[in-house]
Design goal:
about 280 residues; alpha+beta; Helix Hairpins; Alpha-Beta Plaits; five-stranded antiparallel sheet; three-stranded antiparallel sheet
């Protein structure tokens, strides 16, 4: 009975203590949430202003996206740590937890650090920049962003591909935009019996009339191969990188449409069978 009476007399005090503590921790959690929301909005504002400042100073687009990604991650980590501190999480406990997880974290971060330093190497050595068309790791596309860990490509059919920077910095890649000119190659086949000189003259006329094809280096037209079913004419011409595909497809189209007018026929695989009479 005495214990029950004791609990009865202490219950109001206990409830008051729990109420005070609940209010205290509730306010801390509310403040931590406010810090997170306001902090992230401030970070977004800072990054936008930073992007405008870099645009005004004509900063390299590759460096701009890398710095924006890096600074954004650092600022968000600082805001999260501040929110945890306001919520009442002791920093000593936080440090102890981080220390206990450091071994696993370091192992997990091995690839991430490789990607970070890979991104730094890409920015330093500049094998490609934002706007270049590259082929790497089995993918082809235009470089849209070089972020802190990944490089974003947009494919010709408008897909977005994320490639880790570590692989890009340590493996071969093809940059189609690095040079000021690009060579277009064609192989046009004519049937055996057609005039090679007429075909060569027709192709030379097509090349001469296309103003996008450069005069220097001089275009090349030559007999490339006498194949099983066709005589193949090799054509090589130089154009600006942006004109490559238009010139390639339009030359193919023009050859197909006009070769018949010049007495030329487009060959197809065929086989002659001779039967010997017994």
């Amino acid at each position: 009975m005495e214990s029950i009476d004791s609990l009865t007399t202490q219950a109001p005090a206990l409830m008051a203590w729990l109420s005070d503590k609940g209010l205290e921790y509730g306010l801390k959690l509310l403040m931590a949430l406010v810090v997170l929301i306001v902090g992230f909005r401030i970070i977004s504002f800072i990054l936008k202003q930073m992007s405008r400042l870099m645009d005004r100073n004509d900063m390299n687009a590759s460096l701009k996206t890398f710095l924006r990604s890096f600074i954004g991650i650092i600022l968000k980590i600082l805001v999260i740590i501040s929110a945890l501190s306001i919520a009442g999480v002791e920093m000593t406990i936080f440090v102890a937890i981080m220390t206990a997880l450091s071994a696993g974290f370091a192992f997990a971060m091995n690839g991430t650090l490789s990607n970070f330093f890979g991104g730094a190497m890409i920015l330093f050595f500049k094998p490609f920049e934002v706007g270049d068309f590259i082929t790497a790791q089995g993918f082809s596309g235009t470089v849209k962003e070089i972020q802190i860990f990944f490089t974003l490509l947009t494919t010709p059919d408008n897909k977005t591909i994320l490639i880790p920077n570590g692989g890009l910095s340590n493996n071969p890649l093809i940059n189609f935009s690095k040079q000021q000119t690009r060579r277009v190659d064609w192989v046009f086949g004519i049937a055996y019996g057609n005039s090679y000189d007429d075909a060569k003259a027709m192709i030379a006329k097509f090349v001469e009339e296309d103003k996008r094809i450069l005069k220097d280096p001089e275009p090349f037209i030559g007999l490339g191969e006498m194949a099983d079913s066709s005589v193949n004419i090799t054509v090589r011409a130089w154009v600006a990188p942006d004109d490559y595909w238009d010139v390639f497809f339009q030359m193919n189209e023009r050859y197909y449409k006009e070769s018949g007018k010049h007495g030329l026929s487009i060959p197809f695989p065929q086989m002659d069978v001779h039967l010997d009479k017994a």
